[in-house]
Design goal:
Blueprint (H helix, E strand, L loop, with lengths): L1 E5 L3 H12 L4 E5 L2 H10 L6 E5 L7 H10 L6 E5 L4 H9 L4 E4 L4 H12 L9 E4 L2 E4 L4 E5 L5 E5 L2 H12 L5 E2 H8 L10 H14 L7 E4 L3 E4 L5
Helix pairs in contact: 2-3, 6-8
The structure holds calcium ion (CA).
Length: about 230
Amino acid sequence: MKILLIEDEPDLGAIIKTNLSHHQYVVDWVADGRAGWEYLTLDPTTYSLAIIDWMLPKMSGIELCQRLRAEKYTLPILMLTAKDRMEDKITGLDAGADDYLVKPFGMAELRARLRALQRRIPTFQPDKLQLGNLQLDYGNNAIAITSLAGIEQSVSLTVKEFQLLEYLMQHPDRTLTHDQIRNRIWSLDSESASNVVAAQIRLLRKKLAEFGYENAIETVRGFGYRLNSIHL
Ligand code: CA
């Protein structure tokens, strides 16, 4: 799951990004409202959720929220703010924020709020994601695979394998481009090599092949990859 964090306080931004990155999220971080608008609207499928600070340079968090909702962007938004008066909270929610967190807050609370917001995303399933004989297990970073012979086994995945498979399973039978996969699985500042997508696909294919699903991930030449549900 990829999140855009829009926060202009360097220390807080760094803490949030680091903490969430250790909990399976991929986080891009920008420090002003206008950059936030550009990132969120360039390709609306990139981010599943936005964390937006109230007070931001160039465009305030409130204005950003209002603009997104006015343009029919539906992604869940968590507002961060130092304000905790009731009328401020109402202003934030009226602007289109889904939830509201008052600074200072603990990272455990932030993650709990994010989990609550994730449940509103149509494709999100809180514990497990099933496609054919594959079942992603969010609690254990693993996948339960029922082989063609009918034997179920749990296979542990690396963070990147898990995120890649989750993305593919959320968009079965659809070709996802190299760029889409790269933008979704890696943050923009990560120094990933150009063949990093192909390398991760290779690792994942190898794991699936052990259970007879070597044809599940199809290479669409010059374009990207497709997870074919018919082979699962
Ligand atoms: Ca601020």
